[in-house]
Write a structure and sequence with these properties.
The chain is α/β, with parallel strands linked by helices. The protein is built from ten helices and six strands. Helix 2 packs parallel to helix 3, helix 7 crosses helix 9 and helix 8 packs across helix 9. About 3% of the residues have low confidence.
Length: 214
């Protein structure tokens, strides 16, 4: 896994680099602000950008939006000291694949980053609960979606909301191959105009089932 570290504190970058490289991950670059993070992500094409939020020139949220919009194959995981709910919600809306706090244990960080490579959201249980609670509100959109999902896509969606996010576990539950799961997930993201699985879960918790008539 190739990782780009974006943080304005050199000492913190050094520590994260040492940790990742000790666990076999390749650090392809270090950015000091959001502008550098976007430029380096476009040039180096890492698998993951570990993105701080509070950085000079261009902040982490704006850089996340740029990367998600223009380089969607590069996944952004926010790694920050901010435990503010608003930052969590905005980061996911901006396209982040996860949101992690800097006091996270090393083993947990590596495990969550490995999950991102399989399309899983990088969220600790506590932050996942915050996210789901925030979006667990009455629907604000019309009850019928103009982009209805197929019955099988709806099955995948329901499992995601239940917390089953890995391709392997989804395939086991649905008794299909992992490639079939990936196919359904691509369709779901396309129809709902979302960028990743974390946003899918948030969407359903906010708006209710995509096909409420079924």
């Amino acid at each position: 896994m190739r990782v780009l570290i974006a943080d304005d504190h050199a000492l913190f970058r050094d520590g994260v680099r040492s940790l990742l490289e000790a666990r076999g991950l390749e650090v392809v670059g270090e950015a000091r602000n959001g502008r550098e993070a976007f430029d380096m992500a476009r040039r180096l094409q890492p698998d993951i950008v570990l993105m701080d939020l509070a950085m000079p020139e261009v902040g982490g949220l704006d850089a996340t939006r740029l990367i998600s919009a223009e380089i969607p194959e590069v996944k952004v995981v926010v790694l920050t000291a901010s435990d503010e709910d608003a930052d969590l919600f905005e980061a996911i809306k901006a396209g982040a694949q996860g949101y992690l706090l800097k006091d996270l244990k090393a083993d947990e960080l590596i495990e969550l980053l490995n999950g991102v490579s399989e399309g899983q959201p990088a969220l600790t249980p506590a932050l996942a609960r915050k996210l789901l609670t925030e979006f667990a509100r009455p629907p604000t959109l019309p009850s019928h979606s103009p982009h209805d999902l197929t019955e099988r896509e709806q099955d995948v969606l329901e499992l995601l909301v239940q917390g089953i996010t890995s391709n392997h576990d989804l395939a086991d539950k649905l008794i299909v191959t992992e490639n079939t799961v990936k196919y359904h997930l691509r369709n779901i993201l396309g129809k709902l105009h979302l960028k990743n699985r974390a946003q899918v879960v948030a969407y359903v918790m906010q708006h209710g089932p995509v096909n409420p008539q079924k």
